Predict the structure.
Amino acid sequence: MGIRERLSGNEAIAYAMKQIDPDVMGAFPITPSTEIPQYFSSYVDNGEVNTEFIAVESEHSALSTCIGAQAAGARAVSATSSCGLIYMAEMLYVAASNRLPITLAVSCRALSGPININNDHSDAMSVRDCGWLMLFAETNQEAYDNYLQAMRIGEAVGLPIMICQDGFITSHAIENIELVEDDKVKAFVGEYTPQHTLLKNPMAVGPYATPVYYIESKRQQAQAMIDAKRVVRAVADEFARMTGRQYDLLESYRMEDAERAIVIMGSSAGTAKQAVDELRELGEKVGLIKIRCFRPFPAEELAQALRNTLAFGVMDKADSFNAHCGPIYAETAAALYAQGVGAPKGISYIYGLGGRDVRVESIKRVFSDLEEISRTGETGETYRYLDVRE
Amino acid sequence: MSWQASEMTPEVTWREITPGCAIFEGGTSVAVETGDWRTKKPVLDWDKCRQCLLCAPVCPDMSIPVKDGKRGEFQYFFCKGCGICAEACPFHAITMVRDEK
């Protein structure tokens, strides 16, 4: 049986880091992830961990620190948000293409402008193609649990991993949480024993590749992401045997016989589940699919989950500004098309930008739209902003 | 898997290439042909060469080997055909000629 606690999402991440005791942390503060290195630095100061805590002058350097450390054979971690994450963008690609399984905690926040410190997924979505594994949490418990699984996944496939949660909504809100005992965490995460490191034998990391080699290197990197789907599930199953908490690539909520569904990611899934429950009480056949693992994208699983619906809405807490849909919608539609699923009508909803509150009523309005679409067969505008003042 | 640099030829497949193209040994530039894209190559007239050795240090690669105080034949495996050696030679012993494949 685990340890009952009350922690904010940031505290939960810092506590997981303490239990894992990584070798190096590259740290630079930014709202709302600042508390993670802040809490962790007190563990360092108290001698509760053996981590080399390296405070640097920017996020670019924080991740560069991690890259150097991980290439040297260390387990390296960092945390960031918003413009800090996109300031890391250059090095995010370097970390992934050099196959360095760094772990980065992201407390998701809007990007400027207008300047805004509140939650949406603009930051994470803007770096979605950097080659990192990405898990998203609905609750503080999930943020903690995902973090404990992160290194096992990243190190197995040789890719870095982002553990994302919603800034302030889970990062600062205190919830009941069940922690795993220290010795169990240590045994579960294990030691990091890379085959090649800078400190073992002569080695060059990140060399130049001419056109004769570059695309073969990228194809190999793509395979690591493909292989990661199996690993994410295997690690989740092992985690479930330890804790009783089962995770998967996505979570289907009341999808049995559902005619209308929403696809959603992050903390708002909790609100949306309440909406689903209330509508189910009224006999409406509605359900929800929560994406936990965004990279690799669970394309086949999502298409299978949606194939028998009449209409679905994909909730994006970020806009692609492509004049037709949000990023998760685009990938969902591509997944359906690739699987030959063409019957369900799909709507792209942009919602919750810059911390706009998402209420049960908001989600019910989506289901109401979907009801009309499935009844009439008319989709109307497929690119919609939810709860924006007209 | 040995992942020797000598195995990373233009025929290497995506399954066999080293992750991130990392290199696991030193001095691998010796194995890499850098002279495969020149359009002109230097040719030495041995009768004009006085072995002054002004050519060897200006070569940006390692195309002019020097042994026991004397230069040897051009190492075309590395020569990119830049022509700096021909410019540096005070005796006009090096001529740049069109390289045919």
Q: What stands out?
A: Strands of chain B lie at 40-44, 66-67, 70-71, 94-98. The mean pLDDT of chain B is 93.
